Amino acid sequence: MNLLFDIRDRFVPVSSLLDEFGIEPGWTVVDYGCGPGSYIKRASELVGPRGQLFALDVHELAIKAVMQRAARDLLTNVTAVVTDTSKCPLADETADVIYALDMFHMVSDPTGFMKDLDRISKGTGFLFIDNGHQSRDEARSKIIASGVWEMVEEKKRYMKWRPLKKGA
Ligand SMILES: C[S@@+](CC[C@H](N)C(=O)[O-])C[C@H]1O[C@@H](n2cnc3c(N)ncnc32)[C@H](O)[C@@H]1O
Questions:
Q1: Angle at Cα 116 formed by Cα 96 and Cα 92, nearest 5°?
Q2: What is the sign, positive or negative, of the torsion defined by CA atoms of 33, 38, 44, 47?
Q3: Among 57, 105, 113, 142, which is best to mutate for testing ligand 1, by the most ligand atoms less than 8 A from CB?
């Protein structure tokens, strides 16, 4: 599996995507459904020593791989966390940016998932999410149905959302 991610990352450099997310030094970022951690090095660099990256996944093996990668690359601002499918262990209003890449199609309760992402997002935060292995229409309508996110921008590779509570 890791080999497949390595091949993908060689053809589509992770920084070409993450660098579009406007992540700033000192921010707290959540890599939701991080897998083996393809994106953690660049995200760790972007938030810098005063920032924090939480890498979350439901699979212990993924979290182990992320911890190994973080130790190997001396990424001291990365915390890898095993999460639950219904509620993640992060506190309310933690994240300036959440990104969830190539994973949304695997989520069995999209509304519950979106509500939990809203819970851990700061009111000023943003969510970057791609379709995963489903159509854009399907991904977009699941997010809208949750009633807690508002679309900010739609690009070919991802959608950018902000919490509705921001405007409340
Ligand atoms: C195809 S991998 C993508 C990994 C990474 N985001 C990337 O693009 O390289 C999908 C990952 O999402 C995780 N996942 C699926 N459903 C999840 C959920 N509800 N919460 C957290 N992680 C989840 C899986 O365990 C898997 O590691």
A1: 55
A2: negative
A3: 57
Assessment of whether the complete model's pTM goes beyond 0.70: yes
Measuring from atom 23 of ligand 1, which residue has the nearest CA? 33
- What is the Å distance from ligand 1's center to 24 Cα? 24
d(CA 166, CA 148): 10
- The CATH T-level fold of domain 25-167 is Rossmann fold (3.40.50)
pLDDT, one tens digit per residue, over 53-70 is: 999 999 999 999 999 999
DSSP assigned state of 122: E
Question: What is the per-residue burial (b if ≥16 Cβ within 10 Å, else e) of 19-28?
Answer: eebebeeebb
